[in-house]
Amino acid sequence: MKRRTFLSIFLGTATLLTPLSVGRWAQAADPVKAEKVAGKSAAKKSKPPVAPFVPGSWTIAIMPDIQHYSTYYPGLTRLQTQWIVENKEKHNIVYVLQNGDLTNHNTPKEWKRASRGLGILDGVVPYALVPGNHDYAQGNAKDRSTRINNYFPPSRFQDWPTFGGTMAPGHIENNYHLFEAGGIKWIIVGLEFGPRDATLQWADQILKKYSDRKAIVFTHAYLYCDSTRLDWAKKEKTQQGNPHKYGTAGGVNDGEEMWNKLLRKHANLFMVINGHIAGDGLGFQVSKGDHGNLVNEMSVNYQRQPLKGGAWLRLLEFRPDGKTVQARTYSPLYEEHKTDEQNQFIFTIK
Question: 328, 344 in Cβ contact below 8 A?
Answer without folding.
Answer: yes
